[in-house]
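Build the 3D complex.
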Amino acid sequence: MIRFEKVSKTYPGQARAALEQVSVDIEKGEFVFLVGQSGSGKSTFLRLILREYRASEGRVYVAGKEISRLAGWKVPRLRRQIGTVFQDFRLLQNKTVAENVAFALQVIGKSRSQINELVPETLELVGLDGKEDRLPDELSGGEQQRVAIARAFVNRPMILIADEPTGNLDPNTSIGIMKLLDRINRTGTTVLMATHDAGIVDQMRKRVIELEDGRVVRDQARGIYGYQN
Amino acid sequence: MQLRHVFSELVQGLRRNLTMHIAVVLTLFVSLTLVGLGLLLNSEADKAEQRFGDLNQIIVSLCNENSRTPQCSGEVTDAQREAILKVVDENPEVSGYRVETQEQAYDKAQELFSDDYLAKLLKGLGPESLRESVWIDLKERDEFKGIASEVGGLDGVYSVRDNRKIVEPVFKTLDTFRIGAYFIAGFLIFAALLLVANTIRLAAFARRREIGIMRLVGASSLYISLPFLLEALVTALFGVVLAGGTLAAFMQFGIKERISEQIQFLPWIGWPDYVEALGWIAIIGPLLTVVPTLLLTRKYLKV
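Done.
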């Protein structure tokens, strides 16, 4: 589903590479943790998958396509296959829960009947049924993150990328979010999650890829967090 | 693509940035009005030029059957005409010439004064009441005395008109106004462009969250920039409508009801000229807002 072949990325004006000779293969339906210190290259790794940047060297395959060479106008189509969740939720404060989720479908041109079907279904999946008409600031952090996950998943993407999704949440709430991501993973969606949360990684026992200074230093099935913050 | 969403974004965008949009509309309005005014003055200069000839021209009128002057004894004869044209042809000051027959003169007068009181006069007269004429183009603007006096003394010549004496001040005034209009319009257009650029920057900043999410979930570039383009079009439309209205008022109350009544020796521009000028500003206005929007959305939205 995601394959990096000797991928390096150096940002313009910087001597040190953010990623160096990274080769990773993530199968369809896998759940993978991406761990490493701040500045180890996790975000760059995720951004290359989203084609926010092009790799300086090597090849990045997403869903069978080599995306470094993808024409700019085809990038939106790629991103429709990837859902993304962030630490800071990134919800639209003036829209209700349902509108926030529907927005993701509206802007890619889904019909109203599709929206009317998918939005309630997805809100139910993330456990927010009954809260459709709330505004984001009327919700707890965990609930807001559920809205963000619903928005990322409403289009049924093949890949879900989560960049520190529990970073702003307390441990109990984090567990709820992880259960939700696990449930999404069980629908066949590949989940790739960057995190600093040792407890979660140790508990979930999923594949762990550790980056250090832009290199893969560990790739372990059913791994643990494995280093001190 | 959901048009409803695009239009609600458009309305929101216009409202959010209302003062900036008003500033854009007003500068566009004034600059387009000036451009339109310049175009109308251009048409007016063309009309006057058609009537009075180019500033590098002198016009030799030949005798018609009613002419009674020392050099005219009835209509110009073929031999006289030949002699006159020979002199014109051989004169070194002349760069070219053409002969306008009485019929052509009549047709032209009918066209020029179509909506004028002179038209009524013309109807009573036939082509034979007008004069055949030779329109002489000069090489140098100021070297015309030789040819004027040489031709002026020939038989069959009724008069040599140097239209510049009458028309030059008119042309000069028109030119001054026209250049002034374009000059000020140039500055205002520059200001309009800056305002458009700033408006887009503000709008992109105000909507950066939405835009970020749209990019993330895979909205197409067109979809993301469409509200911006529509905003640009709407402001341009307002500018064009206001300028068009002002120019129409200028045509009606300025030209039709005042100036053309007072200065009747000149043919005046009419509604067809207005429509032409309106056409141009209807093209220029949207270009002024849409082109910078296209360029800047690429930059600010990174779509």
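The longest helix of chain B spans residues 164-206.
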